[in-house]
Fold this sequence. Notes:
The protein has six helices and 14 strands.
Amino acid sequence: MDTINTYKCPCCGAPLVFSGTELHCDSCDNTFPVETMQQMSEGMDQASRESKYDWENYQPRSYENSNEINLANYSCPSCGAEITGDDTLGSTVCPYCGQSTIVKGQFEGTLKPDYIIPFKVDKKTAMAAFEADFKNAPFLPDEFKSKKKIEEMAGVYVPFWMFDCDCDAYITYNAEKVTHWSDSNYNYTKTDYFKLLRAGTVGFSNIPVDGSQKADDAYMEAVEPYNYEDAVDFNSAYLSGYLADKYDVSAEESIERANERVKNSTISVFNDTTDMFQMVTPEQSSVSFSNGKIRYSLLPVWMLNIKYLDKMYQFAINGQTGKVVGNYPVDEGKKKKFFWKVAGIAYAAAAVVAYFLLH
Ligand SMILES: [Zn+2]
Ligand SMILES: [Zn+2]
């Protein structure tokens, strides 16, 4: 069987004919080197394959030796949050809902994290970061400025799934290059059409996917980024003085989001290599993962809940960088007073102007 005959012209789709050295299209008169057509056919073949997402199963670890069992589980009677903390933890307001005090329960079936990024920002610094942040909030209700209230912030290690993998990808694009020139008689436009094939491997490490349903995804993504170079092997000593949330979104449930993040980042890296062309449109793409690993990690966040007019306002402060995330309400009373004052000044100014005009 003559396989060369099966190549179709990339420009017009007509069958190509081998002309001794090259492949020729009788229909549109283009010629192509055999090697190019072979490469292209292989690439198109790869790019049209179904994407493969292969992750090694997450290996759960449990707490083993007795040193590690100075921990206890607590739960919130109001929102149901399940939190791990120091055995000696006094009464603490629930960091997720701020509504009620968490109560001690059984320490069983709790999984040991693989990695942890220890708190770098202490409570004093986190409080100062919050105070610096609300300075820009207009007409802020006094509740948010109360030292006593701000002091209620709790240091919580939030569970994240970390994904590592190598991503092999094949992407084909259609693209153009347009050139213009003129002579004394005419303006010319030449359009070259290209079929681009990109293949390569992108390595990913520490792609975080939030493992807690209670921690609002938008908040958790806003509080990122973390510097994962500070991640260390988990040791329960790091939990001393802090709380640790337990994941309630399993590794398996998080895989889809990790796949999306890896695929989108890979495609965007590949897209960057097509800058010199115009009208670049992706045609087919296929990715496959290898060395996929999933690890259970804890990341540090200071959480603060402040109630105002029956509504709870939640703030999160990155425990590594001090970045503050949250929305402040406006005190309508303060706003009104301010406008009366401004209106009063304007009225006085108008009265002065009127006085000078009349006299
Ligand atoms: Zn042709
Ligand atoms: Zn709660």
